[in-house]
Known about the structure:
five-stranded parallel beta sheet, deoxyguanosine kinase activity
Amino acid sequence: MFVAVAGNIGAGKSSLTQILAERFALEPVYEAVDENPYLSDFYADMPRYAFHSQMFFLARRLQQHVSQVNPGNRVIQDRTVYEDAHIFARNLFEEGVMDSRDFRVYTAMYGAIREALRPPDLLVYLHAGLPTLRRHIALRGRDFEATIENGYLERLNGLYEDWFAAYDLSAKVVIGADALDFVGNPDDLARVLEQLEPWLTPPILPLR
Length: 208
């Protein structure tokens, strides 16, 4: 079983990944945000560091898939490689931040890497509006994220909607993060788990 959790910056992906990993005995694979040596520079100077930052995430995602996701029996991943390409890199290109040469190179590399990656069995998309994203970003207190503009988050949300509508690699379910506090409210968590029960079950035997 391979579950992928998708969503914009601050949607609650890491929190949901941790909750589902513990409840359903899934091995969590988290996005390497704090490992990216370009990320703070990227938010300060996007045109200069867009390609570098995206290539780091692509390389790290390949490493995670090869070592953890592809061979894993029960795995849950915080953000997918598909989002890297179809949401974040595409937005940078469409906004003129990443030039066409860098985008072609990135897209070619993504296409080659994608062929080697195991697709999810279930995609869980956390849909969150701007106020929810801003609230979550403020709560986790990453300095470089505090400078993210509202327009950037809103453009990403638009691309997420288009991508999720067209996504057809696996079963998929959308969870409305604006109306549910699945971290702090047990009733809201129960609603989320009820949505996911058709696809997720605990292992019959404990994992060793």
